[in-house]
Amino acid sequence: MTGKQAAVITGGAGGxxxxxxAAYAKKGYDVLxxxxxxxxxxxxxxxxxxxxxxxxxxxxDLAKEEDVKHLMEEAVKNGRTLSVxxxxxxxxxxxxxxxxxxxxxxxxxxxxxxxxxxxxxxAAKKNEGKRKRGRHCQHVFDESFYV
Length: 147
Ligand SMILES: NC(=O)c1ccc[n+]([C@@H]2O[C@H](COP(=O)([O-])OP(=O)(O)OC[C@H]3O[C@@H](n4cnc5c(N)ncnc54)[C@H](O)[C@@H]3O)[C@@H](O)[C@H]2O)c1
Description:
Elements: E1 5-10, H1 15-26, E2 30-35, H2 38-50, E3 55-59, H3 65-75, E4 81-87, H4 102-126, E5 136-139, E6 143-146
Parallel strand pairs: 1-2, 1-4, 2-3, 4-5
Antiparallel strand pairs: 5-6
The structure holds nicotinamide-adenine-dinucleotide.
Nicotinamide-adenine-dinucleotide is lined by residues 11, 13-17, 34-37, 60-63, 88-91, 111, 115, 140-141.
């Protein structure tokens, strides 16, 4: 990967994330995408790389601080600027609250909320002191902000 602008997309191995990975790579970004689904992530990386797109899969559980730090370190390697973060990873548990366990509750909040906090914080740190416009942080669940 040799481009200068990196886009990080979380939960990129499937669903909406997979389409975002391809779309941002076609726009010319170096796309780093993270997911817990290692096999699917590797397969997507191979497929898009074979078409000449610059993509890198980083296996990660985004609820884990060390995994997120590693992801953002990878994003700024080779002099890249971390320009785009899309907080897309998330999960749902569809069952009655009568039967929902506290472990399931924690798991959903960690995947949907803690991951957004960790990724946004670590991505912002990579741009600390650079006060240019255009660094964009997007949350797939309908809100966005600029860092
Ligand atoms: N599809 C919809 O209609 C819809 C509607 C509203 C919001 N959303 C949100 O949009 C996002 C993408 O939706 P989707 O339908 O593509 O979902 P999806 O389940 O197909 O994809 C989500 C991806 O996030 C990954 N993921 C989950 N927890 C993770 C973790 N802790 N670490 C790393 N990766 C993790 C999953 O492995 C999966 O590949 C989700 O956050 C979802 O909640 C989707």
